[in-house]
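Before relying on records like the one below, remember that each one covers exactly one chain. Contacts with other chains, cofactors or solvent are not represented anywhere in the record.
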Amino acid sequence: MEERDDAQATPAVEGPGNDSTTHTTNPSSSTPTAYSAGAAEKGQLKIDTFVEEKYAPYLREYTVLIEYKQLPQHVPSGVFVLPSLQSLFEWHGVMFIRQGLYKKGVFKFVLSIPEAYPDAAPTLRFVTPVFHPLVSAQGEVDLTRAFPRWVAYRDQIWCVLAHVKKLFYHIQADNPLNADAAAKFLAADASEFEQSAVKCVEDSLKDVYINPTDSSLRFAEWNQHFENLRNYILEKEDENEGIISWVSKGVSKIINIRY
């Protein structure tokens, strides 16, 4: 009589989740033992998730630092930003307008980078009052008009700054955030809107030396101290500069980056 090969006779059974599970019989026990490839995959998934969560703040910081370093290559002229002294994910900035109705305007703003960045869009709010159809009374700008679906790494912070700068040159009034400004802009006689825009510019110049207490970007009248500082910076322009890491509170990590 032919002997039976139990290992070959044991069928393979498809378990939950389409994992191929093989049942064999332990010689000392009649209880089947299951080996699942899916269990190993789930274990690896847990490890990957743990690593991602642990190092996510550092990867996010690195992404923002790289974008900040590359800003001079992409950002429009007349736009300057500086990270807050408290957080790398809040930038204080200013826009100098050179042409159009808002010519000579100096408009300060705050750009906030969310925890989900680069998968979520930043937000921008003007600190200086801006009379514009697409700027709310609170200074907020609706970025979904230009970025209805934010795509990580394709859409970057410099894209936001470029878009907002264009708002002062190519004025639109559809779906406005400031209904009064939109009505004046669309009126048959837009002279009232022009007067309001000019007043907005004058007010920005009048308040240019008024600095919010939490702002890292501060304005002061030119004096000999700034002249000396300017000369010192020009002398050191070929040396490495340090960037502070804000990931861990109370810890200042220096990352040397050559500009």
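The longest strand covers residues 90-96.
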